[in-house]
Design goal:
With 387 residues, the chain is an alpha/beta fold. The chain has helices at residues 18-21, 34-55, 62-89, 95-143, 147-170, 173-182, 185-198, 205-213, 231-235, 299-308, 327-338, 366-373, and strands at residues 221-225, 242-247, 255-257, 284-290, 309-320, 339-345, 351-358. Helix content is 50%, strand content 12%. It is elongated and about 145 Å long.
């Protein structure tokens, strides 16, 4: 039939498309029997409990599992409401069956909630252990640094160490004392950088002295001048030796604060006349100067070592080999202060080791000591290159 009925003009009816005849795309669920509904509810419960069991072991996917759990719970609640409504509406003889099915479904839903609560009550222990492991990893991340950050920190620490080192070698010891008082962290920063440098050395003179002095007699009194962090005192048995450690800053335990290139707080005296003498009232058997002749006034340290040493006492010196402008002149200078060389060990490519014994000498005038001080340039500053 034509769509328009106009005399002399008409249009045929457009064919109806097959798509218009097609049914709606909305999926319709087939009606299920009450027994089938109960069975499906039980199956869903089993599946849900299995999923809940896997939640505890997969903590990283917790949020996703939680959403699934909420979605499933909402679905079950909807089914519970549907079952309840079915019980109310049903008036046929089969209504009692539907009502009982709904009650069982509701009972199953309450059982589900109980099981969920049980699962939640079991989770805190596992969560606590996971939290503890997380705290440990977080602490490691806070205390640790990335490779880039570590490299930058090492570069800054190395630059600060070289700056402090240069100041200590190129200035009078009084300047070092002033610097340490103004900023006590300088001492710690310097020795922290020094320990880092020691790691690249083929050997450490302090380790050599620990091994050597360990065989000395009981109750030997040892003075470690410029002890740093008191490695020598920590390495030797305290019950066997009397070890006295001196440096610019005290640690409150091993180290006594003192400017070793000015005055060492120990008994002892200079010769009182122009006659040959070894002084009086000394208590020290061995003096160790391991890489500690640093300030431009370092010869005063040797003078103080002579003053505090017993007659015939030992002076052990270890210095960086590259510092010596003339080894023989250095030995001559030490001898003029009142020592006689016993051994010299230059086999190590990095260090030269000397051993002296104290001998008697005459007293010196201030002018004579001034001439001795002028020879401090025999030891060049120790400059560490940037690695």
């Amino acid at each position: 039939m034509a769509q328009f009925d106009v005399p002399g003009w008409s249009m045929p009816t457009a064919p109806v498309s097959k798509s218009a005849q097609s049914t709606s795309k909305k999926r319709k669920r087939p009606a299920a029997q009450d027994a089938d509904k109960m069975q499906s509810v039980e199956v869903n419960l089993d599946k849900l409990m299995q999923k809940l069991g896997s939640v505890g072991s997969q903590d990283k996917q917790g949020p996703k599992k939680k959403k699934k759990h909420e979605k499933t719970t909402r679905g079950l609640d909807a089914k519970d409401e549907h079952a309840a409504s079915t019980e109310k509406v049903s008036s046929s003889p089969g209504g009692s069956i539907k009502g009982s099915a709904a009650k069982q479904a509701a009972k199953g839903g309450s059982g589900l909630h109980k099981k969920i609560k049980q699962k939640k009550s079991l989770k805190p222990d596992a969560g606590k252990s996971e939290q503890q492991s997380h705290n440990v990893s977080t602490a490691d991340e806070v205390s640790g640094l990335t490779s880039l950050q570590k490299g930058m920190k090492d570069s800054l620490d190395g630059a600060r160490f070289r700056m402090i080192n240069e100041s200590l070698y190129k200035s009078d010891s009084s300047e070092a004392v002033r610097m340490m008082k103004e900023d006590p962290a300088v001492f710690h920063d310097y020795h922290s950088g020094f320990r880092h440098q020691v790691q690249s050395w083929p050997s450490n003179p302090v380790s050599h002295y620990i091994f050597q002095l360990a065989g000395y007699p009981q109750n030997t009194v040892i003075a470690d001048l410029g002890c740093g962090d008191a490695t020598l005192a920590r390495g030797l048995p305290q019950k066997k030796f009397n070890l006295l450690s001196f440096d610019l800053v005290s640690d409150g335990a091993y180290i006594v604060a003192a400017d070793i290139c000015s005055h060492i707080p120990l008994p002892g005296s200079e010769p009182s006349s122009h006659q040959m003498s070894e002084g009086e009232a000394q208590v020290v058997d061995v003096v160790v100067c391991a890489l500690s002749l640093m300030g431009t006034n370092w010869p005063v340290c040797i003078r103080e070592a002579w003053r505090v040493l017993k007659p015939g006492g030992e002076l052990k010196i270890a210095e960086v080999a590259s510092r010596f402008t003339d080894v023989d002149e250095f030995v001559s200078l030490i001898s003029s202060i009142g020592f006689r060389i016993r051994t010299k060990d230059d086999k190590n490519s990095h260090f030269t080791l000397f051993e002296f014994n104290k001998v008697a000498r005459k007293s010196k005038t201030d002018e004579e000591w001034s001439k001795v001080m002028l020879k401090g340039g025999l030891l060049k500053p120790c400059e560490y290159k940037r690695r």
